[in-house]
Amino acid sequence: MEDLIGKQVKGFKFIGNPDSVNYNMSMNKYIGVIGKIKSVRNDSVTVMFHNHDNWSYPYPEILDHLVEEEPEEEQSIEEILNNIKNLTKDL
Predict the structure, then answer these.
(1) What is the mean pLDDT of residues 52-64?
(2) Is residue 79 within a helix (H) or strand (E), and if so which, with residue range?
(3) Beta bridge partners of 8
(4) Which end of the chain is more exposed for a tag (fewer CB within 10 A), N or C?
């Protein structure tokens, strides 16, 4: 479960559980919004969104809402140097 920390996830609506986390109506504005997993504890996962709001979601339901991250393409040294040159040419 600790390997989830740092992964991206879309906010979603869920049915609360008195023994775990409860859904708060304020979470509605985060449905479909991508946040980043900050911590994992027992049956709950804390997600931080762009405005630094943190909300808890139930584990394992969160696994269905993980966002697949595209692997970054490696740039050649020539491309990197060309990008730097283009950024600094107007200075």
Answers:
(1) 94
(2) helix 77-88
(3) 36
(4) C
pLDDT value at residue 84? 79
| pTM metric for this prediction | 0.71
| CATH code for position 83 | 2.30.30
Nearest to residue 1, comparing CAs of 51, 72, 57?
57
**Residue bearing tokens 């600790």:** 2
Domain extent for 78: 2-88
When divided into structural domains, the chain yields a total of 1
C-alpha span between 12 and 30 (Å, rounded): 7
User: Which region among 19-23, 27-31, 47-51 has the lowest average model confidence (pLDDT)?
Assistant: 19-23
